[in-house]
Design a protein that fits this description.
Elements (H helix, E strand, L loop, with lengths): L1 E3 L4 E11 L2 E9 L8 H15 L4 E6 L4 H6 L3 E12 L10 E3 L5 H12 L4 H10 L5 E5 L2 E10 L4 E8 L4 H12 L7 E7 L3 H9 L3 E12 L9 E3 L7
Parallel strand pairs: 3-4, 9-10
Antiparallel strand pairs: 1-2, 2-3, 4-11, 5-10, 5-11, 6-7, 7-8, 8-9, 9-12
Helix pairs in contact: 3-4
Length: 242
């Protein structure tokens, strides 16, 4: 948080989170009257310093194009576009034989599967999402092997969907996970999610269900390039936390 003026009124803020060797920065917001004063850069430098002090080797964020040059000036490099989609819940049916509600005992196993694609361990995030909305969490198994999972949560308006992660070769499983999750959402409420542009399978699934892209941001990083398997990330958890 940065304070400005004689009354020490809040001028802006930025948030950061660590996942072991990975750090994530989000919610860089500056009040309109304090913009173009270098505050965003100061907050970013502070966040970077904090993350590096925690042993982070890679820092990632999602940038709107208007301020992407700020991040590039701090050493961040473009990775790929992150697309924002909006749609609605559906009553459409699909093959869900291998889809089941996620249970509390599965969370650790799901987090381990997730780390293979996300590139870092984010079990605390997955635990909190599950504890808040267990009825919107689904997983697919083949024997003892996880094939994919999906989570969603209530937002101020509608629902935010993600993470949604699946073995890339199991596109039909990814589709079924999405259908199962959407069936738990009020049909009158909008559903929002972010999709890595390289995952064309996710884009196809969403468009087939009537979702439309309404905006995009730029995934960026600095430090070591993360070993992510983006082809299996059908939806991110959110711009703030990845």
């Amino acid at each position: 948080m940065f304070h400005g003026g004689t009354g020490r009124a809040p001028a802006g803020h930025v948030f950061s989170v660590t996942y072991g060797n990975l750090g994530w920065i989000g919610l860089l917001i500056i009040k309109k009257e304090f913009r173009r004063m270098g505050i965003a850069r100061l907050l970013m430098l502070k966040a970077n310093k904090y993350l590096l002090s925690r042993g982070v080797q890679t820092i990632r964020l999602e940038a709107v194009s208007e301020i992407s040059e700020l991040y590039r000036g701090l050493g961040f490099v473009d990775e790929y576009d992150s697309l924002r989609f909006e749609g609605a819940a559906t009553t459409a049916s699909s093959e869900t034989k291998s889809i089941s509600p996620m249970s509390r005992r599965m969370v650790g196993e799901v987090a381990k599967f997730d780390s293979e694609y996300f590139g870092a361990k984010r079990i605390k995030v997955i635990e909190r999402l599950y504890e808040a909305y267990p009825e919107m969490c689904y997983v697919s198994h083949s024997g003892s092997k996880i094939l994919g999972y999906i989570m969603a949560r209530k937002a101020e308006e509608g629902y935010n969907l993600g993470p949604w992660v699946c073995i890339p070769e199991k596109k039909h499983i990814a589709d079924s996970l999405l259908t199962a999750c959407l069936q738990q959402i009020d049909k009158a409420d909008p559903v929002y999610l972010g999709v890595p542009a390289p995952n064309q399978s996710a884009i196809e699934i969403l468009r087939n269900k009537g979702f439309v892209q309404f905006s995009k941001s730029i995934r960026m990083f600095c430090g070591q390039r993360l070993s992510e398997r983006v082809e299996g990330v059908f939806a991110i958890g959110g711009a703030m936390k990845g």
